[in-house]
């Protein structure tokens, strides 16, 4: 007869050490949109709480809305507090995270937007750049062309990566036009159909030991 198994004892497993990302600047196109507010920023806030973001990491949001840094941070705070993925918004943790958030109003189709973005990036503490396209797939070719025209795809002192947020069912539809624009950039790390949005919070915000 098999021995009885004790199912009442709770075993605490050691917590895995999570890696920390390299210092970089994350530029989000479509920064006032639903994807950024409901998914991307809550996920980044969670990663910050886990100690996965480098202290130097800064986030620059771009969209047409005529708002400033303060309005941008307030909007994202409200959205993160309302997110089902964040059980509790710690005020001190948010205030520290919000210092990373910056806003640049601009039209994705205008060269002036990319000129001002280039100027902003030149004052950042790291040359590593991530461009996250939280935009409709149809906008991606324009953004890629303008990034290349402004020289923001060049990898001289750091890396440059583009992340495309594309629903899987539309990836093939505009594959050709996106590839034509991609040919004008140097190196792109393209992630299609992202659904994890960088991380899935499993609980409160705990820092690494």
TrEMBL record:
GO-annotated biological processes: glucose metabolic process; pentose-phosphate shunt, oxidative branch
Pathways involved: Carbohydrate degradation; pentose phosphate pathway; D-ribulose 5-phosphate from D-glucose 6-phosphate (oxidative stage): step 1/3
NADP recorded as keyword: yes
Cellular component per GO, a single term: cytosol
A Pfam family reported for this protein in Swiss-Prot or TrEMBL: G6PD_N
Stretches with biased composition (Basic residues): 194-209
Keywords: Carbohydrate metabolism, Glucose metabolism, NADP, Oxidoreductase
The keyword Oxidoreductase is annotated on this UniProt entry: yes
A molecular function GO annotation: NADP binding
Basic and acidic residues bias (residue ranges): 171-182
Every Glucose-6-phosphate dehydrogenase NAD-binding domain range: 27-173
Chain spans, region Disordered: 171-209
PANTHER family: GLUCOSE-6-PHOSPHATE 1-DEHYDROGENASE, GLUCOSE-6-PHOSPHATE 1-DEHYDROGENASE G6PD
Protein name as it appears in the record: Glucose-6-phosphate dehydrogenase NAD-binding domain-containing protein
Annotated organism of origin: Halochromatium glycolicum
């Amino acid at each position: 007869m098999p021995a009885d198994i004790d199912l009442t004892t709770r075993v605490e497993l050691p917590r895995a050490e999570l890696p920390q990302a390299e210092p970089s600047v994350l530029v989000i196109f479509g920064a006032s949109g639903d994807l950024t507010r409901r998914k991307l920023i809550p996920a980044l806030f969670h990663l910050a709480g886990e100690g996965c973001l480098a202290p130097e990491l800064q986030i620059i949001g771009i969209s047409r809305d005529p708002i400033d840094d303060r309005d941008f941070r307030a909007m994202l705070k409200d959205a993160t507090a309302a997110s089902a993925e964040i059980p509790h918004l710690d005020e001190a943790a948010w205030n520290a995270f919000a210092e990373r958030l910056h806003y640049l109003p601009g039209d994705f189709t205008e060269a002036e937007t990319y000129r001002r973005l280039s100027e902003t990036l030149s004052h950042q503490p790291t040359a590593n750049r991530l461009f996250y396209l939280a935009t409709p797939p149809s906008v991606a070719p324009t953004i890629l062309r303008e990034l290349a025209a402004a020289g923001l795809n060049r990898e001289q002192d750091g890396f440059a990566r583009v992340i495309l947020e594309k629903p899987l069912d539309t990836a093939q539809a505009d594959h050709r036009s996106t590839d034509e624009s991609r040919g004008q950039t140097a190196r792109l790390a393209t992630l299609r159909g992202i659904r994890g949005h960088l991380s899935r919070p499993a609980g409160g915000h705990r820092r690494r030991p």
